[in-house]
Automatic annotation (TrEMBL):
Gene3D superfamilies xrefs: 3.40.50.2300
Region span, Disordered: 126-150
Naturally occurring in which organism (per UniProt): Litoreibacter albidus
InterPro entries reported for this sequence: CheY-like_superfamily
SUPFAM superfamilies: CheY-like (SSF52172)
Protein's UniProt name: Response regulatory domain-containing protein
Length: 150
């Protein structure tokens, strides 16, 4: 599983990188929004762990770009937002699974990350099924049939 860690704090990079690597993730680190956007355009990430701001720029566009390329991506946001501000983020970023404090231990962040992508890993282990029901991803979005216009 491939993970992107976006933060301008080297300590955050190091600690989260170590914990995610122990859990089987391949980790790509980025210290700028521009480089992170380039990474999500080049690869399909399973997980993005990012602070809300990097060098005073919001990082939301990185999650949205990643979601366009890989709809199954899960995003963990490191932020101190509370109450109504949190609801706003969940509406803005459909791939967002958790908002945690930047001061939380990296090991706990890695546990949340692994739990958020576990549904996708189960689907990959079992392989495609020949039944009519859609695969069960760990996503808050419901599967809806799509019809082509024409």
């Amino acid at each position: 599983m491939l993970a992107l860690v976006l933060s301008d704090d080297p300590t955050t990079h190091h600690t989260i990188n170590q914990c995610l690597t122990k859990r089987g993730f391949q980790v790509v680190n980025s210290e700028s929004v521009m480089m992170a956007t380039a990474h999500v355009r080049a690869w399909r990430f399973d997980l993005i762990v990012m602070t809300e701001r990097v060098s005073e720029r919001l990082t939301h566009q990185v999650a949205l770009s990643a979601e366009k390329r890989a709809p199954f991506v899960k995003t963990l946001l490191l932020s101190d937002r509370k109450d109504a501000e949190v609801d706003e983020l969940f509406e803005l970023l459909p791939s967002l699974v958790s908002i945690v404090s930047p001061d939380i231990k990296a090991d706990l962040i890695a546990q949340i990350a692994l739990a958020s992508v576990a549904g996708r890993a189960r689907v990959l282990e079992t392989g495609p099924t020949d039944t009519m029901r859609p695969p069960q991803f760990s996503s808050s979005r419901a599967h809806q049939p799509c019809q082509l216009a024409g």
